[in-house]
Structures are given as structure tokens and as C-alpha cells.
Amino acid sequence: MALPKLVTKFLHRPPRVAVLRLSGAIGAAGRFGGGLSDAALAPLVERAFRRSRPSAVALAINSPGGSPVQSALIAARIRRLAAETDTKVFAFCEDVAASGGYWLAAAADEIYADPTSVVGSIGVISAGFGLHELIARYGVERRVHTAGDSKSLLDPFRPENPEDLERLRRILDGIHAEFIAHVRDRRGAKLSDADLFTGEVWLGRAAVETGLIDGLGHLVPRMKEIYGDKTRFTVVTPRRSLFQRLGAPGAGGPGALPPFRNPAEDSDSALARSLVSGTLDALEDRALWARYGS
Known about the structure:
This protein is of the alpha/beta class. It has helices at 5-11, 38-50, 68-85, 100-105, 132-137, 162-187, 204-210, 219-227, 242-246, 267-290, and strands at residues 16-23, 56-63, 88-98, 110-113, 118-120, 201-203, 215-216, 232-235.
């Protein structure tokens, strides 16, 4: 007895790859504007793995890094869902997959890049400013009162001291050790004998030689090479409400209402604080990209 056409079509449906774009600096909500955080990505990652049972999930990564905690949380979520759904994960590095961006890439089973992609930077950095001489020049006195000797660690308005630097070194070394462990666990015997954990970066071809990536290739042709020419791609994007799709007021579309502001707050000071905060985020975001020539 012939199977109904609908059943036959379902049994012979073409492979489908869910594409999850991870683009931007990595940080908790409120940092780097439209960057990447575990909380923001959670529903997208869930949908990529669980909707329509994809043949694979492809991560399109373009990130200079950022928060090590958010990088670890996102990568752990990807691995957890890959195991729960028995789905293979591929990572495709675009301009940059460095530092936290490479942490995300290492969550994949296979990693590919363009020959000109910048990959690696397995290290940890902490940067700031020393402003104590500037405020002294203008006769500004810094007054800080703490309960706890280490509460004002690396205060930028005070000179650095050896004890603070030693504490910072322990923190950075601890995070670096976790980063290294993650890469060794995911890449294992693929890694070369070279010292890959100095914070150095490599272009695509050199990254293949070091074992940081598996080969050179782009997302669509590589996935079709593996799963066949009839492979379909579903790009996972945030869901928009009906109001957003219609561009209703207050939905972030045309005619959207302005953000709520506390009536008791002076409008000029609120605007100034918003501008300063946005400018600092933009500068920090730009500094992350600039490390890798992007």
C-alpha cells in the first residue's frame, strides 16, 4: 500500500540547518549596546536547537570578545542543548572570532573561517585609566571611605599599589586558566604543540595549522557540501510581536513612544547621563574591535 503523499514528503524532507548569528561584543545587559549576553540569546539558542529538529546548528560568529562570564554562559548553553538534542554544531568565523568570540567558537564541534579571519586571542585583559595626577593638578581631593581594605581595588583616582596589582593578577590568571581549560576540552588533540594561550591571534590559514580551527570555508557552501545541495537554512532571529510587525506606537517601530522617564528627574540631566553612558559604551565597544584591526 502506497504511503500518503504528505507522509512521503515528510520522510524525504531536505536537511535543514539552523543559523544562529553571534555578532558584536559580549557583555551583560546595558553594556556594548546591542551586544551579546546569555539572557538575550537564551530564547534564540533554544529555538535554534529545538524548532523542527534541525540537522545541524551553524554559528555565524563575528565578535572581538568581552565578558568572560557571558562567554562561558553562552558556550555552556550551546553545549547543553547540543547534547540534549543530539545536534552537531558548526562555527563559522567571519571578520573576528577572538578572545570571548573564540570561546563561543570553541563550543562548536567543528570550526571554519575565511583565510582573512582573525582567530584566537586566548588571554584575558583588564584596562583602565590613572587619573590621580590629573585631579591633583586641578586641586581636586579624592575622598573614599570603605569597610574592607580591598573595597577600593584599583581606584583610578589613586596611584596603583603592589597589593592591588597582585590581587588583579590572581583574578586574571584564574579566568585565563578557565579559558585554557575550555579550549583544551573542546579542541583536545587537534591543538598543535605551539603555545596557543599567550593572547596571540592568527589569520585563517595559520589557525588551521595550530588546530584552533578545522578548515577554511564559508557557511552555506560548507553546509551544502556536508548535507547536500538541497539543504535549507533557517536564520534564527528575535520574534517580534504583532504590534511590532505593524509598527504600532510603543512597539519600537515608526511612531514609537519615547522611553519612560521619571517625572521627578531633570530632563537635561537624564539626557546628559544617557549620552555619557552611551558614549562610554560605544568607546569601549570600538576599543575591543580596534584590537583586531576591525
